[in-house]
Amino acid sequence: MDIAILFCSAVVVLGVASLQSQLTRSDRRVARVERKLDTVMRHLGLEEEVPRKDEILALVRDGKQVQAIKLYRETTGAGLREAKQAVDAMS
Question: Cross-referenced Gene3D superfamilies, in alphabetical order (predicted)?
Answer without folding.
Answer: 3.30.1390.10
